[in-house]
Amino acid sequence: MSMFNKKTIEDIDVKDKKVLVRCDFNVPLKDGVITDENRLIGALPTIQYLVEKGAKVILCSHLGKPKGEAKPELSLAPVAKRLSELLGKEVYFAKDDNVVGENAKKAVENMKSGDVVLLENTRYRKEETKNEDNFSQELASLAEIFVNDAFGTAHRAHCSTVGVTKYLETAVCGYLIQKELKFLGEAVENPQRPFVAILGGAKVSDKINVINNLLEKVDTLIIGGGMAYTFLKSQGFEVGNSLVEEDRLDYAREMIQKAKDKGVNLLLPVDHIIADKFAQDAEPVTTENENIKEGYMGLDIGPKTSENYANAVKNAKTVIWNGPMGVFEFENFANGTKAVAKAMAESDAITVIGGGDSAAAVNQLGFGDKMTHISTGGGASLEFLEGIQLPGIVALNDK
Ligand code: AMP
């Protein structure tokens, strides 16, 4: 069973069919106003295609964590309004505190081909995150076909991502998931080489399986950010007050050994930007080498390291990146992250950003459109890199 060869909306006939589409409308809201509508814009191609093909399009999504209660501040009503404007066509909001209630049923019954209905927040129902059959069945009863286009929740087996496929035989992916499978999937399964992975972020413990799995696949593994100090300490370097996970020192040693055994080039920082406190206004000091003196902590990779990492990117044919190289939220400690982003932007390689903070950093720096692919799911793309089968994708029909 391959996770990559899944049927898409283009492989099926949707004309006059009721199609339930799981979207990712989990947008940030402030006082009922959507503050970042990228996810709505991202969902448009799939919705537009289905509308043009004459489907009856029933959209659903979660928003935030209402924990099984109908919390009015987490209603999808603002999404229906904004989506109508973006589509240039009415998105009828089927307001129902229990999601599949009288309003939803009536709205769906009255749909004509090409109409669009949005259901209420699926997490208003406590069954949703437990993948309980009754709610899956209710959702499925509205439609004849299921389309999943929410990559951000594909690593979770919920009613609206997995449960419904028990009751709807035809289950395919939309354009967003198709694109994630193409770029993340090809990078991990069939990369053009040299294949370089760059991992950063705060903690080793969050990336244990990612490091282990990527060492099986890459030619070069680059480590930066807070987790580099556990690796350096495991090799006997002085790390001062830097972030270190004492209980991961053995693991770090094992991974360094594994890299040697596999012939993977493992790159660690050779210099750092350090400070005597963790603060925006901390004075940045550049070290001469790997060692960090007492009373100081590493907050970014140093200039020699940035150059090494940029060179590795320059020579690559495929690069994937997850996690910042330093505390990029503080201006004085953002240069390492910027250098990596810039090297990727200037490269001709296939460049894939694995969501989360690195996606935010790349967009902030204005490099977004220079990357081959920026994943829309932080957690999901990490699990992808761990080699885990994502249940929301496994559940879809194979080609
Ligand atoms: P993650 O969520 O694991 O990708 O980690 C991202 C966070 O790691 C960001 O908020 C960074 O500020 C933080 N980070 C990166 N480098 C360091 C460092 N050297 N020391 C402490 N925190 C760091």
From TrEMBL:
Residues bound to ATP are K207, G298, E329, G355, G356, D357, S358
Which positions does UniProt annotate for (2R)-3-phosphoglycerate binding?
R39, R123, R156
CDD domains per record: Phosphoglycerate_kinase
Q: In which pathway does it act?
A: Carbohydrate degradation; glycolysis; pyruvate from D-glyceraldehyde 3-phosphate: step 2/5
The record's GO molecular-function terms, alphabetically, read: ADP binding; ATP binding; phosphoglycerate kinase activity
Endpoints of the signal sequence: none
Under Enzyme Commission nomenclature, its number is: 2.7.2.3
Instruction: Report the Pfam families cross-referenced here.
Output: PGK
Give residues annotated as binding substrate.
Answer: D24, F25, N26, R39, H62, L63, G64, K65, R123, R156
Entry similarity comment: Belongs to the phosphoglycerate kinase family.
Q: How does it assemble?
A: Monomer.
Annotated GO biological process? gluconeogenesis; glycolytic process
User: Where is this chain's protein located in or outside the cell?
Assistant: Cytoplasm
Record has Cytoplasm as a keyword:
yes
Q: Write down what this protein is called.
A: Phosphoglycerate kinase
Keyword annotations for this protein? ATP-binding, Cytoplasm, Glycolysis, Kinase, Nucleotide-binding, Transferase
What GO cellular component term, any one, is given?
cytosol
Catalysed reaction per UniProt?
(2R)-3-phosphoglycerate + ATP = (2R)-3-phospho-glyceroyl phosphate + ADP
